[in-house]
Amino acid sequence: MQKLVEVYTPTSEEFYWTGDDNEKKGRCHLTTVIATFCLLLLFYYGAQYLISDKDDFEGETKSIHSEIFIVEQYGIASSWRTRSEMLSVDCSLMFDSKGEIPRGKPMSEHPLEMHCDAVRSRVLPFRSADTGFPIAFTKAVYMDYELLEEQLTLSYALENSFCFAVDKKAKDLFKRRLRRLALCLPNVFVLDEEVEMDRHGHYQNQVHLECMRKMMSREWKYVVVLQNHDIMLKSHGELSRIFAALNGTSDIEVTSCSRVRCEPFLDTNVERLKLCPPSSSCSSARLRWAKGAQQSSLSRDAVSFILDHLNVESLVRQLNFLNEGADEILLPTLAISEIGFPGGYTAECLPKKNTFITRYSRWRDNFTRCASGKLRHYICILGTGDLPFLGRSYHLAANKMMPQVDYTAIHCISQLVFNRSRDLSSSIVRENFYANIHAVRYNRYLANIDNETGSFVC
Length: 458
Ligand SMILES: *[C@@H]1O[C@H](CO)[C@@H](O)[C@H](O)[C@H]1NC(C)=O
Ligand SMILES: *[C@@H]1O[C@H](CO)[C@@H](O)[C@H](O)[C@H]1NC(C)=O
Ligand SMILES: *[C@@H]1O[C@H](CO)[C@@H](O)[C@H](O)[C@H]1NC(C)=O
Ligand SMILES: *[C@@H]1O[C@H](CO)[C@@H](O)[C@H](O)[C@H]1NC(C)=O
What we know:
This protein is about 35% helix and about 10% strand. The chain has helices at about 5, 20-25, 30-55, 115-125, 145-155, 170-185, 205-215, 235-245, 300-310, 315-320, 330-335, 385-390, 405-420, 430-435, 440-445, and strands at about 135-140, 160-165, 190, 220-225, 230, 255, 290, 295-300, 360, 375, 380, 395-400.
């Protein structure tokens, strides 16, 4: 079964997890089909209307963005927010693998007050203190606004930056809420342009790069690239310490890209692709293909290199022609090709994978092997049964956790992370581990800091 890990690295499978179900074809009478369809439409728009009608977007205009508000007035919460459906849950029992861990429950949706004071009251009390090591987040999103707001809350610090890229196909209410969130908080952005993303990764490279560009005006040292249902496992304070330990190295998953997947279609000429920075000697180099998760953590130097020194447009355009995993090639390939990517990695170690910390996924070939009993595109939807592992994991985020499947798990891991943000002594981060993952060691080796002689040991 482990083999599957090699074959599939779909990170882009995030999008439209119900997609498969729609593909089932049945033979029904035309009238039944039409009647059902009409009924569904009625329900859909009815529900949309009811929800949006109750959402309170009252009396605010765009000018709100420039309004100065006093952060202190929102206070500082000492415990994580508990939604009504979670009142009976005791999270402290969920992280002990020896105990019986109860099955989780879904999140129930409620109308939301969306005027700025309400939005800020939900986010600001849970903020983390600034660490002097600001972090940016870029996330491609299409559903579950309340989850996204909650995740933002968990990572929120005034020094941080957040950018969302919205799928064009997302519901109007979702888009309105997200745009309002960005209006109410000065360090939150939503890309104006909405493109059609899908679970094969199309257009995701573009939107993440666009988000990074948009956030360049703010100060940050690392940017974390995430998808809709990635759930944070580390607090802002912990992330700052982890990224400090990476010391400029980017965390990008690097695995082999099969001949079938990459090579036949694609141009590898660095010069033709405009991937050789002006003052470098790499013009005769060829790209070395690799693939990995879209999720990654890039140092600011790496982002400046991509945005200001390379012109990745034509590579991004050609990758968009791939049928699947269109978002899995760009960063791993740039990181290992000989174009001077700062804090990158090497093709010499392939096919051995590097240690990758940004995202944890549980790959399985059978839903019975998932703690939640739910499997999507060979990745388990994580649930309460995974909490003992997630509580100890070195990863920064878990993919994927869904509020419709098991919100209890999301609530409890978030509570744990929040607790750690308030009490540093409870943190389990070992900087020494992060300072010695493959890519970080490789960059130390390149800089000749270690006494490693001869070749780098993969
Ligand atoms: C971090 O990187 C800098 C510059 O690349 C280097 O001078 C320094 O020694 C590195 N620190 C560690 C702990 O490797
Ligand atoms: C999944 O695992 C169960 C129990 O091990 C087995 O009965 C079932 O046939 C498996 N399904 C598939 C599709 O492999
Ligand atoms: C977090 O802290 C609160 C209050 O100190 C405690 O009740 C709760 O059990 C803690 N949660 C976890 C997951 O440890
Ligand atoms: C590296 O070499 C220097 C000088 O030879 C030595 O003093 C130092 O202890 C060595 N460091 C390690 C980590 O081996």
